[in-house]
Design a protein that fits this description.
The protein has 5 helices and 8 strands. The protein is an alpha+beta fold. 40% of the residues lie in helices and 27% in strands. A hairpin with a 6-residue loop joins strand 4 and strand 5. The chain is globular and about 40 Å long.
């Protein structure tokens, strides 16, 4: 668990920080450890599909190591177009986590790595035990969701 904490703190504190990372400046190491106790680690290999469009799970995945791409199928149904590149320190699956709807895009691994999966029921347990930390986490996730929506809006306007 310690390596996970260091990965997320390092990503958030980096001078050249990716704006897409989870930033929780008020969290101490113990807060991260308590939170990650509610997640399940999952290693992945390059080119592995992590999220399939249309799936109905309601889990959030924290990218602890590696890089993934988010994309959609092209009209030919055979090829994929990447929409976003997600690095360690960020999350994937946030839309379905919040709205409970089926997955809207595919996510596949660019490199090998690891995600920490938070299922919705575990988030509820975490929130009941630590409401202030859960609030902090929700605002950090909302910031990322807002950033991604702004980027999408910018692309559509072009």
């Amino acid at each position: 668990m310690q390596n996970y904490v260091e990965a997320f703190i390092r990503a958030a504190e980096s001078e050249r920080r990716d704006p897409d990372v989870v930033v929780l400046p008020g969290w101490r190491e113990a807060d991260w450890l308590q939170f990650f106790g509610h997640t399940r680690p999952r290693r992945f290999k390059a080119s592995e599909v992590l999220i399939q469009r249309g799936d109905t799970d309601r889990a959030l995945h924290f990218v602890a190591a590696g890089r993934v791409e988010v994309g959609v199928s092209n009209y030919d149904g055979l090829s994929m177009s990447p929409l976003a590149h997600i690095a360690a320190g960020s999350v994937i699956g946030e839309q379905s986590f919040f709205d409970g709807q089926p997955r809207s895009a595919n996510v596949w691994a660019v490199t090998e790595g690891e995600v920490l999966t938070l299922v919705f029921a575990e988030f509820e347990r975490f929130a009941a035990a630590e409401p202030a930390l859960a609030r902090d986490l929700l605002f950090a996730l909302a910031r990322i969701l807002s950033l991604r929506l702004r980027n999408t809006t910018f692309r559509v306007r072009r």
